[in-house]
Amino acid sequence: MTLRQFIACLLTWVYFVGCSDAQEDPRTAWLQSTLVEDNYPYALRSPDLVAGKFRKMAAGPYNFFRGTMLQFTRDMVERPGWFPTRFGTPEAAQVVVIGDPHYENVGTYRAADGALVLDFNDFDAASVGPFHLDVRRMALSAYIAMVQVEEWRYEQSIAQSSTYTPLTTEADRLDWSASVAFSYATEIGRLQQGGEPLRIRSKSGYGVIIDDIMRRALRDGEAREELSDYTLLLDDERRRFTLGDIEPGENGIIGDRLTEASAADIHWLREAWPELRNTLARPDSIPAAFLAIKDISQRFGAGVSSYPLQRFYVLVEGPTPDAGDDVLLEVKEAGNPTIIPGLKYYPYPRFASNAERVVFYQRELQETAGNDPLLGWLDGSGARSEDFGQVTKSSLGYRVRDRTKYQKGMDVSRLAEKLEASDWTLADFSVFVAVTGRLLASRHAVASVAGTLNDPLTTIHAAIDGRNDLFRDEARRFVAHYGPLVVEDYRRFSRLLDRHGPLLGIRSGLRTRDRL
Predict the structure, then answer these.
(1) How far apart are CA 354 and CA 168, in angstroms?
(2) What is the pLDDT of residue 391?
(3) How large is the greatest C-alpha to C-alpha distance in the chain, in angstroms?
(4) Tens digit of pLDDT for each residue in 77-103?
(5) Which of these, 194, 331, 340, 376, is most buried using a 10 Å CB contact count?
(6) What is the pLDDT at residue 338?
(7) Which residues pair with 116 in a beta bridge?
(8) Cα–Cα distance between 445 and 443 in angstroms, integer?
(9) CA-based nearest residue to 265, from 103, 348, 378
């Protein structure tokens, strides 16, 4: 079956008829059981949000890819996803990793020095692990992003009754995946020779896609769009959150919604809030009055994997009592890191909560700890008690970050639209792919913490050992092996939702062992 036939079959099945028999194969059963296991604690608390997460994952291959990080890690040590590496060493399995690097986890910040920078922006899965799995995840994202582009274009052709002509080939997608790995290896070599870690700025030769992200971030950030989108200035010059749907949802998926936080959550946040300042990278640079709470709301609709997690928006005073410079902060529940089955973990920093872990590794992995000067965390032990399986609020914690429109992420749907309109070309995407491979290498190279075995740059350089072409070719073979499996899993997942309902058969009122 050609790629075009496969996509056509996939889309026809998703929307109308189906192109395989109705019997569940072992992979389908595995997919259901692991997704149930991973999401069961959240379904106990918020079944509607877990159902919304699953609907969001079913919206396209890239969303499915984003929502199945835990399935990816299982596959990396188990068949059919397992694929051997020539570049694994005990030392190279113990470096600080982002955990879930992919294109929609790349975005902008306005750093403490005022510079607009582009960096990785999601560290929920950050921990210590094998460097090559980060590279594979990033390479896979190039492949799945372009599968998503082809699906979107196919849907558009149906809607417009036009002829669908593929923009890319399977070889193209595999070449982009290989480019991630080759750029990564090349950057490691450059850094080992004394080069400076990559610093990405607007209009500095990093291509039109990065320039577009940064242009829009600068425009919306300077306009303080976060205040106009989420708050309302009252007659007495006080600012309050605008409750309701900021962006409408569809198909049971919340777009962007603010609601009134519960009295219990408001009480907990106000009680825990004074400790936030002590968790900032430079507490003395932020006056206590700056963080004075003006309003609190709960937010729904963001993320894919994190869609069911608790999020609060907290409006604080900012640099002056003037309502025009109020600051919006996001308080987000932090889950457990991704643990790779069978990997021996040597001692490394232990954290009081997952939120502390996320903040610690973000500061280690980003260009500077000042990318977000308002990055900190709150202990979750005072949050309201709920039946949350084996996970306690205190172990989760809540990460706090600045919520400004200077933060703008890569968007695969925008990529599809820009390519279709010929505003961007495939050559532009090639530039972006190469830059992100370099970015991942630079971030791995600078992150070093007590307890890991060696200097990360020296360790990774020794593992690759100048075999850049072999490293590239292995990544290409891996994605050729695993990429189509992810796309087929997306089809399996859609079929599971049709058969078992929006929660994949989870019966949320039962104990964990009775979850199905």
Answers:
(1) 40
(2) 41
(3) 66
(4) 888 889 999 999 988 988 999 999 999
(5) 331
(6) 77
(7) 110
(8) 5
(9) 378
